[in-house]
Amino acid sequence: MMTVVWLDGELVGSEMARISPFDHGLLTGDGVFETLRIYGGEPFASRRHLERLSRSAEGLRLAAPGADILRPAMAAVIDANSLADGRMRITVTGGPSPLGSDRGDMRPTVIIAATAMSPWPATADVGVAPWPRNERGALTGLKTVSYGENVVALNWARDRGASEALFGNLSGNLCEGTGTNIFVGVGGRLLTPPLSSGCLAGVTRELVMELATVVEDDLPLAVLGVADEAFLTSSTREVQPVRAVDGAFLAAAPGPLTAAAAAAFSDLVVRDRDP
Hints:
Elements: E1 4-7, E2 10-13, H1 24-28, E3 31-39, E4 42-43, H2 46-60, H3 67-80, E5 86-93, E6 109-115, E7 124-128, H4 148-159, E8 164-168, E9 174-177, E10 181-186, E11 189-192, H5 203-211, E12 214-216, H6 223-226, E13 229-234, E14 238-245, E15 248-249, H7 256-271
Parallel strand pairs: 7-8, 7-14, 11-12
Antiparallel strand pairs: 1-2, 1-6, 3-4, 3-5, 5-6, 8-9, 10-11, 10-13, 13-14, 14-15
């Protein structure tokens, strides 16, 4: 069955969808994106995701469409694919451009796609990648399509039997995963790296921080060795307990703080699809 996508204002079958070979997103990674979960035929936390898309686009000086255009487009894609549950991705690139770093004067390319998804395992094993995040980089805090570093780190983790790689930053502190935020429980306190660590301002991270008592603090990577429990957050993983770090098993997966956060998040999804 062909997937239907929204491409530059039109619904089109994925097999017929075409973007220019000169698209700046393809050539240089000049683009931003958002991934949303779909529950009961509705994209979850759309407002927060679209606001972050706008912030990321502004950071790259891209002209992203507004919510007035994207919201009905998102609904049209869900309807066209008869999706009750799944994942959706909105991508905005620099559009057709010269063969170099300079962006052209064409309008951005905008793609909305949605598919069903397989459930994540009940727990995750993670590895600490040997490459640090640059918390002072030009793209820090922006959700861009420049994911080459994440691809390398995730393959590195999978080669070691893990399903996610965690990064430290240049200061030697815990930062984030390739597509996740990280929370750790130590002595009954729930901790997570601050945005100044270089981590992305994850939507699920933000919601968990509103639902639970969380302390933002610079955390040395060594905290992973003394944590009683830990969990990952992302739009597709929701709240996923960490079972082991670099092959060392944590005391509990899920621990009590993780279980409480997961339950609170599940309740939120049921009562409010756009918190």
